[in-house]
Amino acid sequence: MNKKPATLPRGYRTCTASLAVADVPAALQFYERAFDAKVQAHDADEAPGFASIKIGNSMLFVTAGWGAHGPAVPGTVTPVGHHMYVEDTDATLATALDNGASLIADATDTYWGERCATIADPFGHVWTLATRVENLKPADISERRKALLDAAQTEAA
Length: 157
Hints:
By secondary structure, the protein is α/β, with parallel strands linked by helices.
């Protein structure tokens, strides 16, 4: 009698994002160069249509899509974004841009204690690169947000 496999494959979490792209090999190359992704598995050595990759401690699927779930249209971005914690936002941003990403928002320090930048990868997927720069309590974040909004209203008046 065969043992039932575990619900979650080793190394995965309950939810795993699947990125549909027009060119899986090119996407794998981008993610390896820009985000130091490691290919864990793929369905073919040449021209894979599916791969699982690991970025840091997170697993992602990279696919050619299936059924109604096709790749993003070139020149547009998907409505779902990825918030990725990195050691150095500015360095990761520079590497991603050097490898074909498009800048959406430059690196800035946020009121919630992170340094963030947002890019679109060459396949239309949005990534916010983030580095924690402060440990804040929820009350501190709320206070900073209110001060920022108050300052913006005063400036607009």
